[in-house]
Amino acid sequence: MSFTSNMRYNVRVTLLLFMMLSGIIPAVASGEVLVPESEFAGYFDSNGIYTVVGVVKNMETYPIESHLSLIVISDGKTISVSQDLPSVAPNKDIPFKIRIPQVTDRNAVLEKPTVTFRQSTALPPSDIQVMYDNTLIRHDDGHLTGRITNIGNHTEYDVKVYAAIHGPNNRFMDTGINVEKIEKIEPGQIIEFSIYPDPLVASDVNYYSCFAIGDETVVPLYAIRNGERFNFRYDSTASFTADGFDETGTKLSISGINSFKIQTYVNFEFPKTSDGEKFDVLVDGKPVKFIQSVDEDGNWHVAFDISPSTQNTILISGFENPEGKTESVQSYGTLTYLYVIPIIVAVAVGVYLYKRKN
Questions:
Q1: What is the third-level CATH fold of 1-35+46-117?
Q2: Over the stretch 164-222, which tens digit does the pLDDT of each residue have?
Q3: What pTM was estimated for this model as a whole?
Q4: Phi and psi torsions of 186, nearest 5°
Q5: Which residue of 112, 188, 197, 230 is most buried, as measured by CB atoms within 10 A?
Q6: Burial of 199 (C-beta count, 10 Å sphere; 0-12/13-18/19+)
Q7: Residue 340 contacts by C-beta under 8 Å, 6 or more apart in sequence?
Q8: Class assignment of domain 219-320?
Q9: CA-CA distance, 137 to 73, in Å (whole number)?
Q10: Cβ pair 309, 261 in contact under 8 A
Q11: Which helix (H) or strand (E) holds 300?
Q12: Based on the number of CB atoms within 10 Å of its own CB, is 278 exposed (0-12), middle (13-18) or buried (19 or more)?
C-alpha cells in the first residue's frame, strides 16, 4: 500500500471511529441517506475555484441534519473538507455547493463523499412552498426566477430556496441557492426569489429540479490570531476566504468573489470577545454601510451588501485582542507603580517632616 493510500485509509478509519464514538449514523451503513453518483461532481468554476456540487437524499421517515465530508487528492496531497448542511424533511433532497480554494491541481481526484446524519431537532420550514405557475421562469441567460409562499400559520425565518441544475441530456451540472436574503416570511405572504448558476455553465442550463426549502446555512472559516485558531462563519451566495489578522489581532482581512451579475449580501458571524467591540468595514479600501448585531448565542453578526460580478478585499476592524487587553492591564499596573507609589512615598515623607517640625 502506497504512502498516499495509507494516508487515505487512516483518514477513513479516524472518521469512522469518530462517528461511532459520537453516535452518528454513517450513510453507507443505513443506505437511507446518500449522495447519488449521478448528482455529485467537482469542477473549477468561472473564477478558477475548485467547487464540489451534489445532492443529499434523505430517504428516512424523519427529518435529518446531515454532515458532509469530502476528500480531494491534489498535487499528491490529501485535502479534507467537511460542512454541516441544513435540515431536510423526510423523502426530500438538499443540494449543496462547497468551494475548496486549496485545490489547484487540474487533475485533482474527488473521492466518494461520506454523509453522516442524525434526526433533526429543528424541523425544516415545510410550510414554505415554491409556486409552480407561470411566474417560475428560466431565463435566456440560465438564471431562474420564481415565488415562494407560506401556507402555514406561523412566521418562518432565514428561509433559503435550493435547487439542482441540469443541462443537456438531463446531465447534473450545478446547484444553486436564492441570492436574496429572506429574513422572514409571514403566513400567507408571497416572496420572489432568483437562482443563478455559475457563469461557466449558464449557457448550457436546461432545467432546475428538486427544489428544497431550508433554513440558514453557514460556511465555516478560520484565521490565526496570536498563534491560536479564530473560528468564524458566513452566510452568502458569494465565496470568501480568510487572509488573516494583522499583528495587533484587531483587524481581519478577507477576500471575496461574487460571480453573479446581481447584488447579493454576506453575513459574517464572529465569536464575541467583549460587549464593547464595535466594528468598521472597508471594501476595497472604502467604508461601506453594514449592520452589527448579536444573536441569542452571544455571537456578533456583521452584514453588508456585495456588488455584482466583483472580487473584493475586505477589512473588518474593531476586534478586541485578548492579549492586547492583558497588555493594557499590565500597562495599567506599570503606571500604578510609576505614579501612585511615588505619591504615597511623598505623602509619607511630608507627614514625617511635619511631625518632626512640630
A1: Immunoglobulin-like (2.60.40)
A2: 999 999 999 999 999 998 989 999 999 999 999 999 999 999 999 978 887 666 788 99
A3: 0.73
A4: -80, 160
A5: 197
A6: middle
A7: none
A8: mainly beta
A9: 39
A10: yes
A11: strand 300-306
A12: exposed
